[in-house]
């Protein structure tokens, strides 16, 4: 395996956060890969950053040829480049996140912490904050109810549905202080900034759901197929719906998702909150149904079924109208490009 890789996509010129990531990657011997887009700059002169403009992306394979411009899914091409370079893990982040020192620590795929056993929805943010807060993509109708339940769990001196051990966590979500990843309703009704507590990791067992984002997240090589970001849904749903698909497939392999204390500070780029709200409506109305659909799917067990399971999940969600039919073509292109990126057919 090669170096670890840090991956972002951006439509903005280089800023202080990007320059700091590039500087640290150069100092630490990490690959820093930036996917551009049609709206962004044609040049990106930052020492230590490998910039993929649209021409470079189109030359990478089938997905680069057909991935639509002006979508967050252009990040998929940066993932493929990281895989092509033999990344020993991929940590993705955003262009408005400033890393702390802990961001650069090499993660282990075995994680010790609080293990949530009880199936259902769990607000992972609640374990890292005494304030009322929930992650983008969390069912809005459960936010207050879950708050009360988890408050009791944290005060419970017994097991309370939790356990402490070491678990295989092939996807790991780090939190963000300052302007964390919450939805537009929260932003319009609650004050920020917010800082999370420094706590042990939280590990979600099979059947335990919580959305994770693409802002500070580690994927290990065994699950690189699950990096895929869909292109035919709203910008505010692409990483959230990816997260639910990934969780369902992780369980089919006996693996888990973990949440970790904040290792970045987000200084959020300008957003139109009403536009964000519009783009989040499909999630407010459809996330619980989407998860129930994924739970009912009959998936194969083990890593050898991962690609087929990914196709099955997308086929089911296309039938239910979550994605356009052309998503199936994009997923197929992603899966066909993965072996080429890895350098050997069948290596993923």
Low-confidence stretches: 155-161
The value of Rg in angstroms is 19 Å
Q: Give, in order, the helices and strands.
A: EHEEHHHEEEEHEHEEEHEHHH
Helix content: 25-40%
Largest sheet: 10 strands, mixed
Mean pLDDT: 91
Count of distinct strands: 12
**Strand portion:** 15-25%
**Structural class by SSE content:** alpha/beta
* Multimer state: single chain
- N→C terminal distance: 13 Å
Shape: globular
Discrete helix count: 10
Short description:
The protein is of the alpha/beta class and about 350 residues long. The protein has helices spanning about 15-30, 55-60, 60-65, 75-85, 145-155, 185-190, 240-250, 275-295, 305-320, 325-340, and strands at about 5-10, 30-35, 50, 90-95, 95-100, 110-115, 120, 160-180, 200-205, 210, 215-220, 255-265.
Describe the structure in your own words.
With 348 residues, this protein is α/β, with parallel strands linked by helices. Helix content is 35%, strand content 19%. The protein has ten helices and twelve strands. The chain has helices spanning 16-28, 54-58, 62-66, 75-84, 143-155, 184-189, 238-252, 273-296, 306-319, 327-342; strands at residues 5-9, 31-35, 50-52, 90-93, 97-99, 110-116, 120-121, 162-178, 202-204, 208-209, 216-219, 256-266. Strands 1, 2, 3, 4, 5, 6, 8, 9, 11 and 12 form a ten-stranded mixed β-sheet that branches. The protein has a two-stranded parallel ribbon with strand order 7-10. Strand 1, helix 1 (16-28) and strand 2 (31-35) form a beta-alpha-beta unit. The chain starts with a strand and ends in a 6-residue tail after the last helix. The relative contact order is 0.15. The model is unreliable at 155-161 (pLDDT under 50).
């Amino acid at each position: 395996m090669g170096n670890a890789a840090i991956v972002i996509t951006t439509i903005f010129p280089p800023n202080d956060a990007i320059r700091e990531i590039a500087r640290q990657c150069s100092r630490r011997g990490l690959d820093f890969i930036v996917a551009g887009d049609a709206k962004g700059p044609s040049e990106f002169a930052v020492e230590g950053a490998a910039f993929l403009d649209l021409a470079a992306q189109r030359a990478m394979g089938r997905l680069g040829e057909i991935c639509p411009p002006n979508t967050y899914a252009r990040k998929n091409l940066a993932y493929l480049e990281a895989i092509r370079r033999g990344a020993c893990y991929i940590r993705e982040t955003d262009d408005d996140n400033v890393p702390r020192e802990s961001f650069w620590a090499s993660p282990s795929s075995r994680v010790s912490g609080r293990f949530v056993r009880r199936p259902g929805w769990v607000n992972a943010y609640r374990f890292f904050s005494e304030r009322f807060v929930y992650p983008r993509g969390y069912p809005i109708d459960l936010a207050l109810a879950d708050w009360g339940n988890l408050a009791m769990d944290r005060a419970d001196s017994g097991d309370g549905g939790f356990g402490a051990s070491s678990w295989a966590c092939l996807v790991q979500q780090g939190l963000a202080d300052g302007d964390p990843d919450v939805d537009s309703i929260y932003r319009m009704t609650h004050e920020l900034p917010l800082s999370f507590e420094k706590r042990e990791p939280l590990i979600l067992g099979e059947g335990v759901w919580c959305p994770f984002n693409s802002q500070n997240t580690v994927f290990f090589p065994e699950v690189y197929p699950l990096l895929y970001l869909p292109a035919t849904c709203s910008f505010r749903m692409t990483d959230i719906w990816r997260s639910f698909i990934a969780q369902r497939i992780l369980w089919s392999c006996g693996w888990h998702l973990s949440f970790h204390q904040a290792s970045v500070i987000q200084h959020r780029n300008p957003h139109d909150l009403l536009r964000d709200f519009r783009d989040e409506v499909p999630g407010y109305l459809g996330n619980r149904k989407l998860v129930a659909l994924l739970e009912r799917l009959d998936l194969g067990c083990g890593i050898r079924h991962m690609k087929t399971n990914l196709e099955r999940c997308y086929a089911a969600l296309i039938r239910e109208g979550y994605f356009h039919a052309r998503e199936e073509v994009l997923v197929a292109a992603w899966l066909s490009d993965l072996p080429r990126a890895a350098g050997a057919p069948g290596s993923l």
